[in-house]
């Protein structure tokens, strides 16, 4: 009885939010100021990036005089799991990114679900993807809060509630570097305690301290609208009972314009919570609202 | 031992031929198709600018013919062609324009459109853009 009036409130609240958004969009110029393809995509934890790795890029097409808002939706279909991740990100003046993502991991066999919310922030410290000799460099964090820690506890996580990752990313585009095609590379160092992105909690019997992991993306822009590449993400291996493996993916991205992009990837995620060799497909789309 | 030497010589030969290839690789000017093609790109670029209200604003008081000849020289010279650039420095040209980063990139998009209209392949377009990337610093936010 209490929830019903609150649901009825929603259309009104939404209207106000949309009005505020339109007002804000008029107030500051909508973000279209970056070159096509240079906003990157949205990675699985909601940060501007590739597919599974964050990049130094700020999520939208905002230049230093503009703001942006983007929304993403990603699905990973594995042998024994399905991961759904969706959310939104605000880019401010190509300097600051604030993001939110909700992840929902479905265990195909039992029908169980693990859900977590990820609050992200990223600041560009130096450089420009294309125009500076050195790469663009950003630091960021992802604060992860598990909805229900029961499964995390059952696999032996020391913390079944929340954890925060910190990362530094360097990203660079080299125009015409590979036989005339543009090359993009990205390197990340991440301090983390998260088991399987945090879906299996934080820390474990083998290790309960922050650990530095290495992540990387490399891609070639085949045209103004297509990119292909490979990503690698080193993973910690904190839990005693269940092994965690490094992640790999090969992707192809279609970027028709500055409003939309879509990515298809082949992923190799190794063992996840006792299920062996989880391979599958990753499908992700990002829309840029302004 | 003989096989190792053979392999060594093979490797050296390969390396040398690779180097020869690098030294003999044609300039971007040549890949573009020379001065006549550069003039075509500049013509198309002017058409693009004239039909873009945002970028046209920066050029509305410019002498189009001077812009045409100096930009042609500029691209010819910097892509390795047999030209001399007789125009002003990039700083001087853009002084007072106070061009924003977003408008600069919009201009780059127009240049890309112009290169497409002039049938310049994507891979050559990238090499042209790579040459002009370091000059952005001299062009944007000049009050």
Record keyword descriptors for this entry.
heterodimer, A: 290 residues, mainly beta, Porin, two-stranded antiparallel ribbon, 2 helices, 49% strand, disordered N terminus, B: 143 residues, Globin-like
Task: Give an account of the 3D structure.
The complex is a heterodimer of chains A (290) and B (143). The model of chain A is unreliable at 1-7 (pLDDT under 50). With 290 residues, chain A is mainly beta. Chain A is globular, with a radius of gyration of 19 Å. Chain A has two helices and 14 strands. In chain A, the strands form two sheets. In chain A, strands 3-4-5-6-7-8-9-10-11-12-13-14 form a twelve-stranded antiparallel β-barrel. Chain A has a single domain, classed as monomeric porin ompg (Porin), CATH 2.40.160.40. In chain A, 10% of the residues lie in helices and 49% in strands. Helix content of chain B is 70%, strand content 0%. Chain B is built from eight helices and no strands. Chain B has a single domain, classed as Globin-like (Orthogonal Bundle). The model of chain B has no long low-confidence stretch (mean pLDDT 89). In chain B, helix 3 (34-50) packs across helix 5 and helix 3 (34-50) packs across helix 7 (101-117). The termini of chain B are far apart. Chain B is an all-alpha fold and 143 residues long. Chain B is elongated. Chain A binds chain B through residues 29, 32-36, 63-66, 94, 130-131, 133, 174-177, 179-182, 223-224, and chain B through 100-103, 105-106, 108-109, 112, 121-124, 126-127, 129-130, 133-134, 136-137.
């Amino acid at each position: 009885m209490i929830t019903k009036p609150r649901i009825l409130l929603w259309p009104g609240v939404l209207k106000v939010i949309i009005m505020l958004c339109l007002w804000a969009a008029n107030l500051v110029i909508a973000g279209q100021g970056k070159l096509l393809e240079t906003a990157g995509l949205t990675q699985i934890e909601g940060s501007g990036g590739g597919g599974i790795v964050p990049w130094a890029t700020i999520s939208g097409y905002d230049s230093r005089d503009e703001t942006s808002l983007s929304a993403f939706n990603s699905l990973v279909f594995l042998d024994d799991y399905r991961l759904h991740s969706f959310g939104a990100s605000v880019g401010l003046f190509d300097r600051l990114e604030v993001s939110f993502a909700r992840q929902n991991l479905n265990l195909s066999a039992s029908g169980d679900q693990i859900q977590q919310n990820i609050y992200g922030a990223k600041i560009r410290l130096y450089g420009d993807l294309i125009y500076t000799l050195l790469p663009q460099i950003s630091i960021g964090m992802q604060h992860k809060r598990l909805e229900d820690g029961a499964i995390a506890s059952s696999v032996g996580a020391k913390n079944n509630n929340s954890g925060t990752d910190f990362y530094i990313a360097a990203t660079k585009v080299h125009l015409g570097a590979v036989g005339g095609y543009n090359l993009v590379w990205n390197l990340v160092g991440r301090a983390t305690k998260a088991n399987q992105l945090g879906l299996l909690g934080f820390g474990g019997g083998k290790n309960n301290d922050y650990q530095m992991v290495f992540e990387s993306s490399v891609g070639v822009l085949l045209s103004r609208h297509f990119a292909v590449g490979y990503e690698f993400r080193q993973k910690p291996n904190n839990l005693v009972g269940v092994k965690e493996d490094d992640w790999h993916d090969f992707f192809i991205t279609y970027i028709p314009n500055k409003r939309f992009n879509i990515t298809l990837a082949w992923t190799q995620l190794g063992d996840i919570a006792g299920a062996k060799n989880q391979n599958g497909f990753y499908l992700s789309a990002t829309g840029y609202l302004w | 031992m003989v096989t190792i030497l053979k392999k060594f010589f093979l490797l050296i030969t390969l390396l040398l031929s690779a180097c020869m290839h690098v030294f003999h690789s044609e300039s971007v000017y040549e890949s573009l198709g020379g001065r006549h093609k550069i003039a075509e790109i500049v013509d198309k670029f002017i058409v693009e600018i004239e039909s873009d209200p945002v970028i046209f604003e920066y050029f509305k008081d410019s002498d189009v013919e001077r812009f045409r000849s100096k930009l042609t020289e500029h691209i010819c010279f910097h892509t390795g062609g047999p030209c001399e650039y007789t125009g002003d420095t990039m700083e001087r040209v853009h002084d007072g324009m106070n061009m924003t980063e977003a408008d600069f990139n919009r201009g780059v998009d127009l240049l890309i459109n112009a290169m497409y209209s002039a049938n310049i392949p994507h891979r050559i377009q990238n090499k042209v853009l790579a040459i002009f990337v370091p000059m952005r610093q001299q062009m944007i936010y000049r009050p």
